[in-house]
């Protein structure tokens, strides 16, 4: 377990026991924090990709959720890397839904409701 | 009346395509084109986003997927995955709201392996309190291979 450590920790038993214990404890804690770290990484990647298409991350995510597209951040980050055209279409969808939201909020008159704001019901 | 800085709102005024009929006609044209492309078979590799084992995966054909749980299927069983969220190819993508219909997409997979993970060490330790717990955990894992992703021209 410890052959790759530095100094006398890889040779002397007493020092090695302590460092192995610390290494195990740190690995268990890191497994819980890896999930938070990866989610932050995905969020920064999606933010960068959506800024290239002229949208900010909170607007992008909120509009996607409002138009009933439930893709999680991991998949969105993968799409942004490997499928740029798909990500562009998703950004356009979010932009269109955003504008429909603005019109619905500002107009509040007898204007036609947005097309992308319709909610689909499954049975 | 002279135009001041406050006559029009500071945000750019955007006009959406007004009549619902125009959007419907456009949608019908796009739908016809995409159906034609699908039935002509003019797509290369298809990729799909599938919700499986409480996780979302972006998969293509001939893909390996490993999940951290047990499936109630023997090795060599064919599995059809429902709950497809997105399907795409080079020229078009089908985005589900949130799921796509079962008569649109078909994702087939076979179970290859059912093993256990490498033994992970779970240790808790408080210093100066003589508290040490060590537990070795090995999770069961399953490996699936995605055989095919097929789409049928049943859009509406």
From TrEMBL, chain A:
PANTHER family xref list: 39S RIBOSOMAL PROTEIN L20 (PTHR10986)
Species this chain originates from: Elachura formosa
Family note: Belongs to the bacterial ribosomal protein bL20 family.
SUPFAM superfamilies per record: Ribosomal protein L20
Transmembrane segments annotated in the record for this chain: none
GO molecular function, one term: rRNA binding
UniProt-listed InterPro entries: Ribosomal_bL20, Ribosomal_protein_bL20_C
Key words of the record: Ribonucleoprotein, Ribosomal protein
Pfam families reported for this sequence: Ribosomal_L20
Example of a GO cellular component annotation carried by this entry: ribonucleoprotein complex
GO BP terms in the entry: translation
Protein name: Large ribosomal subunit protein bL20m
Source taxon at top rank: Eukaryota
Automatic annotation (TrEMBL), chain B:
Domain of life: Eukaryota
GO annotations of cellular component type: mitochondrial large ribosomal subunit
Cross-referenced Pfam families: Ribosomal_L21p
GO function term, MF aspect, one: structural constituent of ribosome
Entry's family note: Belongs to the bacterial ribosomal protein bL21 family.
Family annotation (PANTHER family): 50S RIBOSOMAL PROTEIN L21, LARGE RIBOSOMAL SUBUNIT PROTEIN BL21M
This protein's name: Large ribosomal subunit protein bL21m
Organism, scientific name: Elachura formosa (spotted wren-babbler)
């Amino acid at each position: 377990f410890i052959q790759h450590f530095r100094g006398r920790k890889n040779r002397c038993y007493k020092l090695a026991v302590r460092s192995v214990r610390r290494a195990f404890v740190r690995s268990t804690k890191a497994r819980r924090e890896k999930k938070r770290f990866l989610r932050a990484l995905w969020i920064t990647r999606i933010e960068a990709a959506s800024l290239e298409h002229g949208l900010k991350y909170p607007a992008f995510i909120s509009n996607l959720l409002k138009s009933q597209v439930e893709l999680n951040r991991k998949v969105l980050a993968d799409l942004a890397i490997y499928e740029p055209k798909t990500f562009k279409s998703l950004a356009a969808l979010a932009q269109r839904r955003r504008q429909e939201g603005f019109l619905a909020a500002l107009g509040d008159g007898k204007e036609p409701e947005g097309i992308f704001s319709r909610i689909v019901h499954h049975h | 009346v002279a135009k001041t800085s406050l006559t029009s709102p500071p945000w750019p005024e955007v006009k959406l395509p007004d009549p619902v009929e125009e959007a419907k006609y456009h949608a019908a044209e796009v739908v016809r084109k995409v159906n034609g492309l699908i039935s002509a078979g003019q797509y290369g590799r298809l990729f799909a986003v599938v919700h499986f084992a409480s996780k979302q995966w972006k998969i293509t054909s001939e893909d390996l997927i490993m999940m951290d749980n047990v499936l109630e299927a023997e090795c060599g069983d064919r599995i059809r995955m429902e709950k497809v969220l997105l399907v795409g190819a080079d020229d078009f993508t089908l985005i589900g709201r949130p799921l796509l219909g079962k008569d649109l997409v078909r994702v087939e997979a076979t179970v290859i392996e059912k093993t256990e993970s490498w033994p992970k060490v779970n240790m808790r330790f408080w210093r100066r309190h003589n508290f040490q717990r060590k537990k070795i955990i090995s999770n069961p894992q399953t490996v699936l291979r995605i055989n095919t992703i097929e789409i049928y021209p049943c859009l509406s």
